Amino acid sequence: MSQAEDGIEPGRRFATEIREQPAALRRLLEHDGEIARVAATVRERDARLVRIVGHGSSDNAASFGDQFVAVATVFCGGAAADAAAE
Could you tell me the pTM of the whole model? Predict the structure, then answer.
């Protein structure tokens, strides 16, 4: 297998990031109070659109986040489901 320019074999970085996801999710869930406050603000403002942005490899993660929000709002219903369908 050929080495990438940075010396890491192709696919290894992504495999490492995938294995890090459970711990990253646990860290995210430690902020459930802050997430609840943001969610309450979104509801109060009757937000019709949620957009997640990123740059570089984070752009790919942001794209998946956008898709997740769209699917989650369709299954959960509410005003955001209408925006996700647009």
Answer: 0.46
